[in-house]
Amino acid sequence: MLPIFFSAFxxxxxxxxxxxxxxxxxxxxxxxxxxINLYQHVSQTENRTNLxxxxxxxxxxxxxxxxxxxGNTFTELQDALGYNIHDQSVQDFxxxxxxxxxxxxxxxxxxxxxxxxxxxxxxxxxxxxxxxGHWANSSLQQTxxxxxNRTTAQIQEWITGNLxxxxxxxxxxxxxxxxxxxxxLVSTMYFKSTWxxxxxxxxxxxxxxxxxxxxxxxxxxxxxxxxxxxxxCP
Length: 234
Known about the structure:
Blueprint: H1 2-10, E1 16-17, E2 20-21, H2 24-43, H3 55-66, H4 71-81, H5 88-101, E3 109-119, H6 126-132, E4 138-143, H7 148-161, E5 183-192, E6 205-210, E7 216-221
Parallel strand pairs: 3-4
Antiparallel strand pairs: 1-2, 3-5, 6-7
């Protein structure tokens, strides 16, 4: 439930959507609905495998794209998010929320980052470049998509530098594109905190674990009994 809760938290407050002021509860419901719909859409192709997504990262990416979109594309992005990023009140609110989310004074570390990798031959609108380069820890970077391996390495390096010192060695990263690609949008979310209710080492149990190949192994598994909130997304 962390992705859904985090999405509701990071985007919850009163802002303008399609020119109408909505309440805190309405916006919270809207963002939770966005997160659930995203999960359901992505999970359709995952065939019941483990799935972890970050709706907050997706929202930041769509906000970034709104700065450069027009016509039907902009309308679709606005409909997906529920708000217009060009509204100054929306920008002011989101800036404050993103800055608050990165405040580690309470012990938890949250870092959102988004980068727009653009082929060196593509000319971007100066207005879009100015906006997108300073939105929610975002950046614009030039690359050469005619060399996909080099572009992949460049993106991998950027990911490593935006994960709060996290280890991404061994993380699979598909080819960033082909010689026909012109841009790639990459986002990350780094989260680090301590357990609110820590697992007791004495409660660790040897339980069965099924590998990807179908074999079953006995592995040490953390164990804790408690009443917790959960959500069910059919």
